[in-house]
Every structure is written in structure tokens, then in C-alpha cells.
Amino acid sequence: MKILVIDDELLAIEGLMAILKRLCPNARLRGYEDPEDTFELVNYNPPDIAFLDIEMRTMNGIDYAKKLMKINPAVNIVFVTGYKIYMEDAFNLHVSGYITKPVTEEKVQKELENLRNPIRGKYYSRIKIHTFGDFEVFIDDIPLKFAYAKSKELFAILVDANGAMCSTAKIIEKMWPDDDFNKHDSYIRNLYADIFKTLKEKGCEDILIKRRGECGIDRNKVSCDYFDFLDGDRDSINSFNEEYMIQYAWGEMTLGGLINRII
């Protein structure tokens, strides 16, 4: 479960985040003072629940909620404000809830127990991908075994793309940078077949997004330290050991970008 908190007062964010950590210890929490800082995050990785202040300096919370609901119509919006005058506007949006300040644990718990839209929580726990250090994929905490080592590398390339679609040409360029495209085209198809078969046996084939001539990972259906790092998750940032997919030479370019983010 992913929860977003936006308030232009840092103390308000810290107070609500502390309550949410107690009530939802396994949730991924993000807190921001400026709504504009979240646009890249919510486009690639929209939250399940958003606690939004309404009166903010850079953007009205009502307007932000409308943008967020266009990205993810199933998001649960809970407005948190010191003013009751916005209640009619909030309810016209059919939001999940409305909390008047001061925020208490009882108020937050009540809203969490009465969310408008269900949370697809199981997607965030079954499939875990580790990229810091060796690349490994776990399903139900058991390492996933592919038939071929190159299948695992191909899957790693899809993860490295951070949700973007990868063409066959791009994948071949990474795996065999000095070879001819036609030499490996049919082999790539066999590797895709192995990946799909392996995931289907575990009931997880829906994490792959396939289009003509390209493929990607649905990052909303997996738990991944690399994705969390890019989303600003403090636990993932703190656990980053300046090692990334160390068994693949092409990972060094991504590693450099990750290191630059924390300098």
C-alpha cells in the first residue's frame, strides 16, 4: 500500500506520517511540502491513498486532487484541512474522506477503515526485486529460477528501464553490444518465452507489459528497492550500498546516476 501526504507545513507532514507509521507499518509513505514536486512520482507510481491539505501556497489541494484522480481514478483522496468551507467541493469530487485539523490517530484510523476504493495490496508483497548488490527476483520470498541465465539478465534489463518499454534492439545492444542484431533476434524471443512461462507458473505473468516489438515491467505490481529509491523512499536510500546489479557490466551507468542522486 502506497500513501502520499502533502501539506505545506513540515510539522503537519511529520505528525501525520508518524500516525500512519503506527497504523500502517508496512505501507510505503511519501511526504511532500510542494505538490509540484510529486508530478513525476505520481505519473509513474500513483499512490493508493493521498492525504492532502487544501490551502497550500503553490497549489490548491482540490485542484491537485483532480489531477491525481485523472492519473489514477481509484485513488483514495482524504482531505486534511483546518477549514470546513471546502467540504462541499470535496464531496462533489466523491473523495474518500475529510479530516479537520487537529489530526488525531482516531480520525485517521476511521478514514482508513472506510476507504472508498479497495487497495490491491497483494501486488506489493508477492514479487520482490533486489537490485542493490546482486540482482535477484523473489516470489513469496523464494528466489525465482529461470531456465537460462540470459533470461534473468533480460528481466534485469526490463527492471533497469524503470517501467519504460524496451525494444528488442535496445535489449540486444545491452546484452551483446558488439554483435549484429540479426544474430540474436530469435534467441531473444526464446528468452521472453522462458520469462513468461516462469512467471505464469507462479501466477505473476501480468507484471509484464507486452506490445509489438517491445516489453516492460509494470512497476506498480512489484516491490523493488531501485524503484523505491527513485521514488524518494528514505529506507531504500539509506540501504543503498553503492552497488547495483553487480553481475551485469551495463548496470554501471545506472549506478553512476544513483550515486549522483545522493551526493
Task: Summarize the topology.
Blueprint: E1 2-6, H1 10-23, E2 28-32, H2 39-44, E3 49-52, H3 61-71, E4 76-81, H4 87-92, E5 97-100, H5 105-113, E6 127-130, E7 136-139, E8 142-143, H6 149-160, E9 166-167, H7 168-175, H8 185-201, E10 208-211, E11 214-217, E12 223-224, H9 225-230, H10 234-239, H11 251-262
Parallel strand pairs: 1-2, 1-3, 3-4, 4-5, 6-12
Antiparallel strand pairs: 6-7, 7-8, 9-11, 10-11
In short, what is this structure?
The protein has 263 residues and is of the alpha/beta class. Helix content is 41%, strand content 17%.
- Helices, by number, come to 11
Low-confidence stretches: none
The arrangement of helices and strands along the chain is EHEHEHEHEHEEEHEHHEEEHHH
* Shape-level CATH architecture of the largest domain: Orthogonal Bundle
User: What fraction strand?
Assistant: 15-25%
The beta-strand count equals 12
Sheet/helix structural class: alpha/beta
Name of the CATH superfamily of the largest domain: Winged helix-like DNA-binding domain superfamily/Winged helix DNA-binding domain
Whole-number tally of structural domains: 2
CATH fold-level topology of the largest domain: Arc Repressor Mutant, subunit A
> How are the strands ordered across the major sheet?
2-1-3-4-5
How would you characterize the largest beta sheet?
5 strands, parallel
Overall 3D shape: elongated
Termini separation comes to 29 Å
The CATH C-level class name of the largest domain: Mainly Alpha
Please give the share of residues in helix.
Answer: 40-55%
Mean pLDDT: 88
Radius of gyration: 21 Å
